[in-house]
Design brief:
By secondary structure, the chain is an alpha/beta fold. It contains 7 helices and 11 strands.
């Protein structure tokens, strides 16, 4: 059983992940920005922790991370504001990685997106570019770190019911239920063969645990 810290603890994926991890016997802390969301997070069995990752410096983040076994980054600015997208999806994410290293919490799972790569192909003048650029910068920093990292890169997120199945390296947008992304995160935490790997996936026919196994 592990102590797991989730950044972005009130996100749609995180709210589905938290009860899965609690049911497995883990102790889950969910970092949220808005105190109004504490009750909803607590209802999942996770312990809400109100903190603004955008405003915290490295030492403050290290204090939050310390004592945990696993960090999950599922936070995001939500698009719309390029400056905030960079501040959260790139800068705060990178600070959290450095904080994990400083706190000697080596296991780190990043929730990214299927197109996060240097040649993502998004035009610089496109509204989606700041997100694509920020996510790639964060992923590249993580991959170059000494952490025991996994980058989970799902395709287009849907609110469909969970299937328990995915497909790796989709050729299309890789539409996948958020519930299956949550299950993939839980399976990744439980499977050390995922360390050091970027796993791109969408909905599919292979059982999640089998699909991600190295």
């Amino acid at each position: 059983m592990a102590r797991i810290l989730i950044f972005g603890g009130h996100g749609k994926v995180a709210l589905l992940l938290e009860p899965l991890l609690v049911a497995q016997g883990h102790t889950v802390t969910a970092v949220i920005r808005n105190a109004d969301h504490e009750a909803e997070v607590a209802a999942t069995g996770a312990q809400p922790l109100v903190a603004d990752v955008e405003a915290l410096d490295l030492d403050q983040l290290a204090n939050i991370v310390a004592g945990n076994d696993v960090v999950v980054w599922s936070a995001g600015a939500g698009g719309g504001n390029p400056a905030r997208t960079y501040a959260v999806d790139r800068d705060a994410a990178i600070r959290s990685m450095d904080a994990a290293a400083a706190a000697d919490v080596l296991r780190y799972v990043m929730v990214s997106w299927v197109g996060s790569r240097a040649d993502h192909g998004i035009a610089p003048d496109a509204s989606f570019f700041p997100y694509a650029d920020a996510k790639w910068a964060a992923d590249a920093h993580l991959a170059a770190s000494a952490l025991d990292w996994t980058i989970l890169a799902p395709g287009t997120l849907t609110l469909d019911p969970p299937t328990g199945r995915i497909a790796l390296d989709p050729d299309d947008a890789g539409a996948v239920a958020r519930a299956d992304v949550a299950a993939a995160i839980a399976a990744t935490i439980a499977d050390d063969t995922t360390i050091g790997r970027t796993i791109r996936f969408g909905g599919g026919d292979e059982v999640i645990g089998h699909a991600i196994a190295g």
